Amino acid sequence: MLFRARYASALLxxxxxxxxxxxxxDTSDGTSSGATSGGTGGAGGAGGATSGAxxxxxxGPAYAxxxxxxxxxxxxxxxxxxxxxxxxxxxxxxxxxxxxVQGRALGVGLDGGGAVFVASDAAATVTRYDLQEDxxxxxxxxxxxxxxxxxxxxxxxxxxxxxxxxxxxxxxxxTAQVVVWNPQEMTVTGDIPLEDLVIQDxxxxxxxxxxxxxxGDVITFGGWRIGPEVPSVAAVVVVDSATDEATVVTDExxxxxxxxxxxxxxxxxxxxxxxGAAVHRLNPDNAAAPCMLRFDPETRQFDPEFHVExxxxxxxxxxxxxxxxxxxxxxxxxxxxxxxxxxDDTHPRVLASAAAWRWASVTLGDTPTATVLDAAPGGxxxxxxxxxxxxxxxxxxxxxxxxxxxIGEDGPGEAGVSAPGLTFSVAxxx
Length: 430
Hints:
It is a single chain. Helices cover 8% and strands 41% of the residues. It is mainly β. The chain has 2 domains: 1-193 and 417-430, no CATH class; 204-382, no CATH class. The strands form 7 sheets. Strands 12, 13, 14, 15 and 16 form a 5-stranded antiparallel beta sheet that branches. Strands 17, 18, 19, 20 and 21 form a 5-stranded antiparallel beta sheet that branches.
């Protein structure tokens, strides 16, 4: 069936926008729009806490959801910061009292730290908003990362990691460095070069899940794209938060290995993300077979004897996106091709975000096993947020809304709160 070009373009845009976050793509051209602050249009005291039905609690938890609302054809994006005290309700949040931010914004913060820090692709700045007693947010200082060579801040909220109230990291792909900054003083205090992550002509992106923390080590994962190809390189980045020294360890047995979880043996298991798996499914010459590798955090080396092709866990089916749940649980997504018709011109980003990937629980160890679950299928690329001791999946309904769904021992739980637009970041601020 043939579509007119304008309808086909609109359909492609709807499918691609959720995957831009989960696959590491960006709709902007990498230039600054001239904004001088990461947060604009938000007056002090705006953004009062609400569960959707009203109310401003004096105590209890408070969460900041930062949502992105796209204009016609995906342009003229505006973002909004909403504060709510209830993420378990299945109600829809309103933008009526939200703080408006220019561009595609992210809102992050130290868990329970009383503030949300807002950045966007409109400038290389972060603006602090402090939670008030009545549940509103008050705008504070802004810090610029431009002096470290950054033109904007975007992609994932998980690229931010808060070591403490006075120290935080931002893992930047385009400049291959970690920017060190002080969230309390709102100053940049240093940088950690990651030259070993530079691959000529390649786009570097980081994990869309929160970094792992072992002792004082902050651990994240990188992946690369070169046009339609995925280089066969996996990378683990370990930053010692006491010394700000980084170790980058690479492996060439498979690529786009942006996901990792800690196994019951203390080892870190990493695997190809769904986008890399989709590239291989559509053209095996463009990417190595999706695989699982094992990294020893003590020796800081990959296990040369451990290499599992993900398809062997599912009788040959395409799989990717390894991510964690409660109590050490681990999950993968496996493609059910009966739910999505693959054509000769199917784009890997579209395939990775198609609602055709089933949930599977994974037992990690010397010989991993996997069991497909009964949960409803969804997109293969996973965007999750850790809020306290709970982990939530951010589920997109096209570009119209986002629903928070808690990940339990058996996979996705009941749908929680939803917000209009696309939510790429959530922070527990109290």
